[in-house]
Every structure is written in structure tokens, then in C-alpha cells.
Amino acid sequence: xxxxxxxxxxxxxxxxxxxxxxxxxxxxxxxxxxxxxxxxxxxxxxxxxxxxxxxxxxxxxxxxxxxxxxxxxxxxxxxxxxxxxxxxxxxxxxxxxxxxxxxxxxxxxxxxxxxxxxxxxxxxxxxxxxxxxxxxxxxxxxxxxxxxxxxxxxxxxxxxxxxxxxxxxxxxxxxxxxxxxxxxxxxxxxxxxxxxxxxxxxxxxxxxxxxxxxxxxxxxxxxxxxxxxxxxxxxxxxxxxxxxxxxxxxxxxxxxxxxxxxxxxxxxxxxxxxxxxxxxxxxxxxxxxxxxxxxxxxxxxxxxxxxxxxxxx
Length: 313
Prior knowledge:
There is one protein chain. The chain is an alpha+beta fold. It folds into two domains: 9-102, 2-Layer Sandwich (Phosphorylase Kinase, domain 1), CATH 3.30.200; 114-307, Aminoglycoside 3'-phosphotransferase, Chain: A, domain 2 (Alpha-Beta Complex), CATH 3.90.1200. The chain has helices at residues 9-16, 61-73, 114-131, 144-154, 160-174, 216-227, 237-250, 255-281, 295-307, and strands at 24-29, 37-43, 46-52, 91-93, 96-102, 183-186, 195-198, 201-205, 212-215. A hairpin with a 2-residue loop joins β4 (91-93) and β5 (96-102). The protein is globular, with a radius of gyration of 20 Å.
């Protein structure tokens, strides 16, 4: 959610005239994130988020926007895309496909306690169950094919030790695919900064633009790797149990899923080590960007490799 494409007040006013949302009162660029251009937009009729898509193509957007609309219709706290006066969910702004969605209430909790992890476990299970009836199909855009392609792009920037870790983990993951596990649309990026809390309740889940079809357990592993980590890159047992118990209360997991847990924790760590390394070594120009340090997920992956964490319930 950096600013790659500046939008002038004049451009925004002209574009918003296609929506029945009143007139602009405030336009604030959002600096967090690294994929799309985002602004908070306040009008005389509400508060919204404007997104300009920097990589996604127009033919790809219906999957994401209709998924968000589907989940919102199932009482999930997701942004709802607005249709313009012609009934379109997106159109061109400053040469990029752009959409306007509702702005949700709450603040991210960057220091989650067990109660927040418990709320997240319940929320993720509800999201998976609600998405199960979504008819759209889209492969996980950051799945194994992307891992290998990105690994080739960044390997020249890595130390010999890092190259060995990457080569061995890609080989390991290639021996452990879990296509038979329960699957469907997943968020695939449920980090703390993509979840808004209103008091102790989840008030919103944002940034669905890495979503795709994959195993639900993989999505849960992504959550655990961010929400339940200690400063030493280890899973905190109390927060992890709170997350998994709340999830399993909504959607019980099979023995096969429990057995796959350590492998998918590693897969989730690998994915974000690769993406953050790519953003660090091969950055895109933007007016505002806050890249993440890939060393953190390298540390998480290394710990998972050496400890092989088991399903704790």
C-alpha cells in the first residue's frame, strides 16, 4: 500500500464524479505496504479507500473484488467494493485500474495478546467457511511456481549459506505437496497490519489482493508465523494454542492437516522470505514505500527447519 502512482485532487474529483458518494473532503496517501497505491478518501457521504492496482491486470480484478463482496455478504468484516454509476467495480484512474471500497473501523494490533490470537483463529475459520461457497477460481499467485521463479531472480544477492537454505527448502517443499487437504479461497496475507481491531473484536480484514485457491491450513500457518512469534522467531505456545483452538472450534482439522502443520509453517516462512528478499534486492520506484526486512522470515524458516514444530493440540 505504497504510493507508486500519484493522484492529483483534480484527477480524483473527476474520477469520483462517476460514483454517487458526494464530493471530496480529504485525500490522504497510505504509506504502508509495497504492492498497490492506496489513499484514504473522505467525502460528504462517507469514508473510503481508493486503490490503484500497479501489477494486477483488469482481467484479474473481478476474482478479488467479487470475493470481497461475497465475504461481506456472509457477514465477514471485509471492505465492500462500490459500483460506479455504470455498475462497474473498477475503472481507469491515472492510467491504472482503480477501485473504491468501504473503509473499516479499528486499528491494527502490532503486539497481539492471546485474546487477539483467539479472535483471529475464529475469524480465519469463518473466512474459510464463508469463502467455500465462492464460485471464482484463481491459483495462489505466490505458490510453488512463483517460489522457484523468484528464487532464481534473487539467488545472486544471497550468501552461500542463504543459497544453500533456499535450495534445500525448495527441494523439501517439492516433496511435500498437500493438494488433498481441505482447500478453497484463502487470504494469503493475513498479517497484523491487514487486520483491524475494534476493542477486542476484529473490526476489519483488508488487502485481499494476494488471495487465491490453496489449502486452508497454509493460510493458518501464515497467520501463526506472524501473530504468534516471539522476538526470538519461535512460536509462543500460549498465543499459538489460542489461535489454533479458536480455529478448530469453528472448523475441526483432520489428522492429515495436523501432520502437515510443520511443513506448511516452513512453506509460509519461505514464501515471505522470498517476497521480502525480492522487494529488497529488486525494488520498484515509488513516492512512499516501507520495505520489510527479509532477515526476519529467514530466521523463522531456519528455526522451523531445525525444530520441526508439531501440531500442539
